[in-house]
């Protein structure tokens, strides 16, 4: 296989010529990770000559195809004469997956295992669950309602038409109804009305929405302010359909490492054999004591460094310039190896199983016998190495403290390490414990056998391997603990504060340990320390303990909910597991009550479960993460945001939006999400309005045409109405901005309007419905009165009514837009001119029904007078009502608009603290005055924005967590579904 | 630490590991892509809204006055004759009108209430006649009317498409079949007023919609006669009554031009109308009226526009006044943040 040839089938490698019998495929297309991975030929095939390859015979046992691209558990058995009958395990490391690119590889030879749709890629292609925004769901609901309305109209008018036909139309001899017509004639009139009303549901809405949605996505892609200069990563919207949901986010579930932090691991401190290094300077690599210890060959330090250097899966690559680059799968390992190299323990090369280390210019050779890989369940990894000089076998381990310390040999005092780890964790550092043990050769041989067996088992391989590993990892000598710093990203605390101000609740889900998580949470403003905030712990090892702990926390939550305190709870993975399987109900209540939660030591699937839980309470969730362990959470959430970080692009590929840095999230939500929501709210309701308008006119006309279902408008006009006349101006709503970005950033609370769905809900829709009915009546009545008697020619009258609708549309769009760029003005008024141009054109075709009509009309003064009258009567009340509400019942948006226009960008005086207090006051007022009326923020109309209503609706929608919840159903947000 | 820098850049652009990045993926700046197009953001200030209403009032009232005056200047004489033209003893009006053997002549006297300047338009008005009925309005074939060669094309014309023996009817369809066939003869002081029936239809219809070589064929040959029988020697483009009739009315009450009189009529002139009452509106109790009317720039007599303009103008003045009053009584400072609900409680403390 040549370089840069995409693989089509999944191959088993047999022979590879490249850097030490390894193929280095690039899997970017597969998992999004851009780092190179190494793939090796399986041991029995190592050393085969090229000429022998085609003579190989053997059997490969492989599992049925699945989509897990990280696992491949198979066996190979080669027939003589090549090999003894030994079964040899094959793993993912021996597999080239479909659509990988080979790099740094001259050629590779293999066997195709899966092809076509059975490859890992083919299997995982699947149908991704389509995401539906809350808005789309609402639009669908409204469409359904309109459909029912349409059916009612059809049935009622159909029946009325038939009655009229029998009572009156049969007397109208010129209509010539047949007296004994077949029974199905009774269906003709209803079907006619169905035809007339079919335009009631705007088909164009789908097209318009798709268009504007793709523009929203483009605006995100184009946004300079979300471009990460450092890593050259622009923001990207992979899913173009869900921008509106960004504006309606209620919960953000965030990963910690790489999301809030930079994931740029730097080895800062360590504790080796009870001695702390790096405490003063904050950088162990500059600590003179450590340097001295290294220079003096202090045995503890040497062991520690050896573990740092060898216990990993790092691959050193010599660059042409002579320096050594390390390819690491985890940033921690990278930091450790680099730190060790700085302390003169340099991993020079890894050739197959042989590792070469230079220490103070002394060369040491090791053979790596086995790698006991890291899994998130084991939380530690080990390697078994053979010291080539002394022939001794060592087990080198590193891992999380709680995974390592229990493995210490009995008698070792681990107190210092526990203290060290605690201390480091409090500083927000990531800790790893390093340990080692010398193995007896017999012990190793025995164990190696069972390890091989476990590794070649087809079922539950992972679990079996873990079990076998456990047998070896005991009686370790704990050498010390390392502390790696992972700095907070720029702007994280500010972003979190702004987003929390806008009423979004934050949950931090991390695989890290509790103390580190709390520390980071404090650093980034997620929780406040006493007395402002209180952190409630849920812990316990058994079911009972957890239950009690949960009950206690819940009780505290309920009691303190009236106090001005920021409450948050912390739960660890173990307790969470118990809770999620046994106490979901109580936990749901807790999650509703708590604005902030820290979940530590959680597995990827638990992250996804938590997202699911919040979604089941009908919250809009946004999950943000950067690593492979966040993928499931990202896919599960309503909106998945991936950070294109150092852990590869896996999360970013799976996500709906990918950004370079966490701080861009606030712009993504407050600017893009909010604008998208507002724009779509207008666009969708307007689409219904214009369709209803034309439909209402048709219905009104049917009352004057014997309820027979005559269409007032000719088919050309009807088609052009939806396609040309009304769809283009409203598309420019993508440029509409109700408030400037700056104002929104300064008043993030304004997002509540979007979260509560106050711009698109049944009551705002009722407003538009009423408006279309009103406008239809205005157009129709004025037209038939102005064009009565001798003027009542069909084509003329229909064109007058159509012109009236087009004029009104232009005014409606103008009135509802908040800002006008030249594009909007061009679209709105250009469209009106285009309407005339198009109709002049049609009117000049002799064969068309409309021949000369438009020219005739435009010469009549009464035509223009009629249209001006229609516009005046149609828009007058709308304008008056809007002005009245704007001035005397203003929504917060209106107030900010006025503030913005009257004195430019403004600065809010209140800070978060007083704001929280005020909202709690509002809550209490609301609770005491309207206890019976349950708040349902979603349907709170802008119309009823009385001071009381606005306080009730604005206040609690973000902070209703403080409302005492007597039962689950009493909680305002839970009744959203009702 | 150089390993970091190199490590992160690898794979960024192909396989060049340590190549410096030249083409940045930074989005290109433009005002459009950054959503920074200059925009004007008008808001509904009291001043603006009140002036709009005043302006609308100022424009609407004069237009209303002018339109109303124009409409008032029109002199219109309407005479309903459907009932009056049935002899007193007839109880079954339907049988009467259907019976061709009874002469349908009828005489009506009209008194001119005001001086009428020529041209005077003679209309017939039908009430409760649904020319806009779905079955009726589509019952025609434009191709056939225009083109001699398409005489046999009678799509859409059912049930008046073909004669009983299958010959195509020209002009086919219900509209043509039900052509109005009352005739009027106007006499003033024993002297016939000539009613000019030339040019009562649209010129565009005569030129392009109705062929000058299309002659009526098989018309009104069915068992039931609908309306007027066309002279089969005159091409359709000259059958102006038909052309006028075929311009269907959108409303159940409509007037159609019968002809024009190019003589001034004086106040108190008595016009004797000798009419032939042939058209059947009795089956559906529709009214038939004869209308003499002058016209102005706005058309015939129609006070609606004028009155509507005056009303709207008045309401606009009232609204402007009301809003001004409200503004003076309850002034609202522009953009006071203290109105923000989340600031209100804090400041009120």
UniProtKB/TrEMBL annotation, chain A:
<dbReference type="InterPro" id="IPR023214">
    <property type="entry name" value="HAD_sf"/>
</dbReference>
<feature type="binding site">
    <location>
        <position position="257"/>
    </location>
    <ligand>
        <name>ATP</name>
    </ligand>
</feature>
<keyword id="KW-0067">ATP-binding</keyword>
<feature type="binding site">
    <location>
        <position position="630"/>
    </location>
    <ligand>
        <name>Mg(2+)</name>
    </ligand>
</feature>
<feature type="transmembrane region" description="Helical">
    <location>
        <begin position="768"/>
        <end position="788"/>
    </location>
</feature>
<feature type="binding site">
    <location>
        <position position="398"/>
    </location>
    <ligand>
        <name>ATP</name>
    </ligand>
</feature>
<keyword id="KW-0479">Metal-binding</keyword>
<feature type="transmembrane region" description="Helical">
    <location>
        <begin position="863"/>
        <end position="884"/>
    </location>
</feature>
<dbReference type="GO" id="GO:0045332">
    <property type="term" value="P:phospholipid translocation"/>
</dbReference>
<feature type="binding site">
    <location>
        <position position="512"/>
    </location>
    <ligand>
        <name>ATP</name>
    </ligand>
</feature>
<dbReference type="GO" id="GO:0005524">
    <property type="term" value="F:ATP binding"/>
</dbReference>
<feature type="active site" description="4-aspartylphosphate intermediate">
    <location>
        <position position="255"/>
    </location>
</feature>
<dbReference type="InterPro" id="IPR023299">
    <property type="entry name" value="ATPase_P-typ_cyto_dom_N"/>
</dbReference>
<feature type="binding site">
    <location>
        <position position="374"/>
    </location>
    <ligand>
        <name>ATP</name>
    </ligand>
</feature>
<dbReference type="Pfam" id="PF08282">
    <property type="entry name" value="Hydrolase_3"/>
</dbReference>
<feature type="binding site">
    <location>
        <position position="333"/>
    </location>
    <ligand>
        <name>ATP</name>
    </ligand>
</feature>
<feature type="binding site">
    <location>
        <position position="255"/>
    </location>
    <ligand>
        <name>Mg(2+)</name>
    </ligand>
</feature>
<dbReference type="Pfam" id="PF16212">
    <property type="entry name" value="PhoLip_ATPase_C"/>
</dbReference>
<feature type="binding site">
    <location>
        <position position="630"/>
    </location>
    <ligand>
        <name>ATP</name>
    </ligand>
</feature>
<dbReference type="GO" id="GO:0140326">
    <property type="term" value="F:ATPase-coupled intramembrane lipid transporter activity"/>
</dbReference>
<feature type="binding site">
    <location>
        <position position="510"/>
    </location>
    <ligand>
        <name>ATP</name>
    </ligand>
</feature>
<keyword id="KW-0460">Magnesium</keyword>
UniProtKB/TrEMBL annotation, chain B:
<dbReference type="GO" id="GO:0005783">
    <property type="term" value="C:endoplasmic reticulum"/>
</dbReference>
<dbReference type="GO" id="GO:0005886">
    <property type="term" value="C:plasma membrane"/>
</dbReference>
<feature type="transmembrane region" description="Helical">
    <location>
        <begin position="48"/>
        <end position="68"/>
    </location>
</feature>
<feature type="region of interest" description="Disordered">
    <location>
        <begin position="140"/>
        <end position="160"/>
    </location>
</feature>
<feature type="transmembrane region" description="Helical">
    <location>
        <begin position="307"/>
        <end position="329"/>
    </location>
</feature>
<keyword id="KW-1133">Transmembrane helix</keyword>
<feature type="region of interest" description="Disordered">
    <location>
        <begin position="1"/>
        <end position="31"/>
    </location>
</feature>
<keyword id="KW-0812">Transmembrane</keyword>
<dbReference type="Pfam" id="PF03381">
    <property type="entry name" value="CDC50"/>
</dbReference>
<protein>
    <recommendedName>
        <fullName>ALA-interacting subunit</fullName>
    </recommendedName>
</protein>
<keyword id="KW-0472">Membrane</keyword>
<dbReference type="InterPro" id="IPR005045">
    <property type="entry name" value="CDC50/LEM3_fam"/>
</dbReference>
<comment type="similarity">
    <text>Belongs to the CDC50/LEM3 family.</text>
</comment>
<dbReference type="GO" id="GO:0005794">
    <property type="term" value="C:Golgi apparatus"/>
</dbReference>
């Amino acid at each position: 296989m040549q370089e840069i040839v995409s693989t089509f089938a999944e191959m088993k490698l047999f022979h590879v010529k490249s850097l030490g019998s390894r193929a280095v495929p690039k899997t970017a297309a597969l998992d999004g990770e851009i780092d190179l991975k190494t793939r090796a030929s399986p041991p029995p095939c190592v050393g085969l000559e090229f000429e022998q390859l085609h003579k190989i015979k053997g059997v490969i046992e492989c599992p049925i195809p699945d989509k897990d691209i990280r696992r491949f558990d198979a066996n190979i058995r080669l027939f003589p004469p090549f090999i003894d009958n030994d079964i040899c395990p094959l793993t993912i490391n021996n597999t080239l997956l479909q659509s990988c690119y080979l790099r740094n590889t001259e050629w590779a030879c293999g066997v195709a295992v899966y092809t076509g749709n059975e490859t890992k890629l083919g299997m995982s292609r699947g149908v991704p669950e389509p995401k539906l925004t809350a808005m789309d769901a609402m639009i669908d609901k409204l469409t359904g309602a309109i459909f029912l309305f349409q059916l009612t109209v059809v049935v009622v008018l159909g029946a009325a038409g038939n009655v009229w036909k029998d009572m009156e139309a049969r007397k109208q001899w010129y209509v010539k109804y047949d007296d004994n017509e077949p029974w199905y004639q009774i269906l003709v009139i209803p079907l006619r009305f169905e035809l007339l009303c079919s335009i009631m549901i705007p088909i164009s809405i789908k097209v318009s929405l798709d268009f504007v949605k793709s523009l929203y996505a483009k605006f995100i892609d184009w946004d300079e302010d979300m471009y990460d200069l450092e890593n050259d990563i622009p923001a990207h919207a992979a899913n173009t359909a869900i921008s509106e949901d960004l504006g309606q986010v209620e919960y953000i579930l965030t990963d910690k490492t790489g999301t809030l932090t930079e994931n740029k691991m730097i080895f800062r401190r360590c504790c080796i054999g009870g001695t702390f290094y790096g405490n003063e300077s904050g950088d162990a690599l500059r600590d003179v004591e450590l340097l001295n210890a290294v220079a003096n060959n202090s045995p503890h330090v040497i062991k520690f460094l050896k573990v740092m250097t060898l216990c990993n899966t790092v691959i050193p690559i010599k660059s042409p310039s002579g320096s050594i680059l390390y390819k690491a799968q985890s940033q921690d390992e990278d930091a450790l190896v680099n730190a060790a190299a700085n302390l003169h323990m340099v991993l020079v090369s890894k050739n197959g199983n042989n590792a070469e280390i230079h220490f103070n210019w002394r060369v040491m050779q090791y053979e790596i016998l086995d790698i006991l890989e890291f899994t998130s369940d084991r939380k530690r990894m080990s390697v078994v190495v053979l010291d080539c000089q002394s022939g001794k076998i060592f087990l080198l381990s590193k891992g999380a403290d709680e995974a390592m310390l229990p493995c210490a040999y009995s008698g070792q005092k681990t107190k210092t390490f526990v203290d060290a780890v605690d201390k480091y964790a409090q500083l927000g550092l990531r800790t790893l414990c390093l340990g080692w043990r010398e193995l007896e050769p017999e012990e190793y041989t025995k164990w190696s056998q069972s390890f091989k067996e476990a590794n070649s088992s087809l079922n539950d391989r992972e679990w079996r391997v873990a079990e076998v590993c456990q047998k070896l990892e005991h009686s370790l000598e704990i050498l010390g603990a390392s502390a790696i710093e992972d700095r907070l990203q720029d702007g994280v605390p500010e972003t979190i504060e702004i987003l929390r101000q806008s009423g979004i609740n934050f949950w931090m889900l991390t695989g890290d340990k509790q103390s580190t998580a709390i520390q980071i949470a404090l650093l980034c403003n997620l929780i406040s320390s006493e007395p402002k905030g209180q952190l409630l712990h849920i812990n316990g090892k058994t079911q009972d303990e957890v239950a009690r702990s949960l009950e206690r926390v819940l009780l505290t939550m309920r009691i303190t909910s009236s106090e001005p305190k920021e409450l948050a709870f912390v739960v660890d993975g173990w307790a969470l597991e118990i809770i999620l399987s046994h106490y979901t109900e109580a936990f749901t209540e807790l999650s509703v009550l708590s604005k902030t939660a820290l979940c530590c030591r959680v597995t990827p699937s638990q992250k996804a479960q938590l997202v699911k839980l919040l979604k089941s309470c009908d919250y809009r969730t946004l999950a943000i993460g950067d690593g492979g362990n966040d993928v499931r959470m990202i896919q599960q959430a309503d909106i998945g945001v991936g950070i294109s970080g150092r852990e590869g692009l896996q999360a970013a590929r799976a996500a709906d939006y990918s950004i370079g840095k966490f701080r861009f999230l606030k712009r993504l939500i407050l600017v893009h999400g909010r604008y998208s929501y507002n724009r779509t709210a207008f666009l969708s309701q307007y689409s219904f309005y214009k369709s209803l308008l034309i439909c209402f006119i048709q219905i009104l006309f049917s009352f004057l045409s014997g309820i027979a279902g005559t269409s007032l408008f000719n088919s050309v006009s009807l088609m052009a109405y939806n396609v040309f006349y009304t769809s283009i101006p409203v598309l420019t709503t993508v440029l509409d901005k109700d408030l400037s970005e700056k104002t929104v950033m300064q008043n993030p609370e304004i997002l509540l309007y979007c979260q509560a769905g106050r711009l698109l809900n049944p009551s705002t829709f009722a407003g538009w419905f009423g408006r279309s009915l009103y406008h239809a009546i205005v157009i129709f009545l004025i037209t038939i009165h102005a064009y009565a008697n001798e003027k009542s020619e069909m084509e003329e009258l229909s064109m007058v009514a159509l012109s009236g609708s087009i004029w009104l549309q232009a005014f409606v769009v103008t009135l509802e837009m908040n800002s006008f760029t030249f594009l909007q003005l061009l679209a709105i008024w250009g469209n009106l001119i285009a309407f005339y141009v198009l109709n002049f054109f049609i009117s000049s075709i002799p064969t068309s029904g409309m021949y000369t009509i438009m020219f005739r009309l435009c010469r009549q003064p009464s035509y223009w007078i009629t249209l001006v009258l229609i516009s005046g009567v149609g828009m007058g009340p709308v304008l008056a009502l809007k002005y009245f509400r704007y001035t005397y019942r203003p929504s917060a948006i209106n107030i900010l608009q006025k503030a913005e226009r009257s004195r430019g960008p403004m600065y809010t005086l209140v800070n978060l603290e007083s704001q929280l207090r005020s909202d709690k006051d509002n809550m209490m007022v609301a609770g005491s005055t309207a206890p019976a009326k349950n708040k349902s923020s979603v349907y709170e109309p802008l119309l009823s924005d009385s001071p009381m209503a606005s306080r009730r609706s604005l206040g609690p929608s973000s902070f209703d967590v403080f409302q005492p919840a007597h039962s689950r159903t009493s909680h305002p947000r839970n009744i959203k579904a009702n | 630490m150089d390993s970091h820098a190199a490590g992160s850049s690898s794979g960024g652009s192909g396989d060049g590991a340590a190549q410096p990045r030249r083409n940045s993926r930074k989005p290109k700046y433009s005002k459009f892509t950054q959503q920074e197009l200059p925009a004007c953001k008008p808001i509904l200030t009291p001043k603006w809204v009140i002036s709009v209403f005043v302006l609308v009032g100022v424009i609407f009232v004069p237009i209303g006055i002018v339109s109303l005056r124009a409409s008032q200047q029109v002199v219109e004489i309407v005479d309903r004759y459907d009932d009056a033209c049935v002899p007193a003893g007839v109880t079954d009006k339907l049988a009467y009108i259907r019976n061709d053997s009874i002469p349908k002549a009828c005489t009506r006297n009209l008194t001119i209430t005001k001086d009428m300047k020529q041209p005077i338009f003679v209309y017939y008005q039908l009430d409760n006649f649904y020319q806009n009925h779905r079955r009726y309005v589509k019952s025609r074939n434009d191709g056939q009317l225009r083109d001699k060669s398409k005489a046999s094309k009678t799509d859409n014309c059912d049930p008046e498409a073909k004669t009983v023996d299958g010959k195509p009817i020209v002009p086919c369809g219900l509209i043509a079949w039900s052509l109005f066939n009352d005739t009027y003869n106007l006499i003033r002081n024993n002297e016939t007023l000539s009613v000019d029936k030339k040019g009562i239809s649209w010129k565009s219809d005569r030129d392009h919609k109705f062929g000058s070589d299309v002659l009526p064929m098989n018309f009104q040959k069915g068992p039931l006669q609908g309306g007027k029988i066309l002279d089969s020697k005159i091409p359709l483009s000259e059958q102006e009554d038909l052309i006028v009739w075929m311009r269907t009315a959108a409303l159940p009450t409509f007037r159609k031009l019968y002809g024009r009189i190019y003589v001034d009529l004086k106040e108190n002139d008595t016009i004797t109308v000798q009419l032939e009452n042939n058209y059947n509106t009795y089956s559906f109790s529709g009214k038939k009226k004869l209308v003499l009317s002058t016209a102005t720039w706005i058309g015939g007599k129609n006070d609606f526009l004028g009155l509507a303009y005056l009303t709207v103008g008045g309401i606009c003045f009232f609204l402007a006044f009301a809003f001004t009053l409200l503004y003076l009584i309850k002034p609202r400072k522009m953009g006071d943040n203290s109105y923000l609900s989340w600031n209100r409680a804090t400041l009120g403390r």
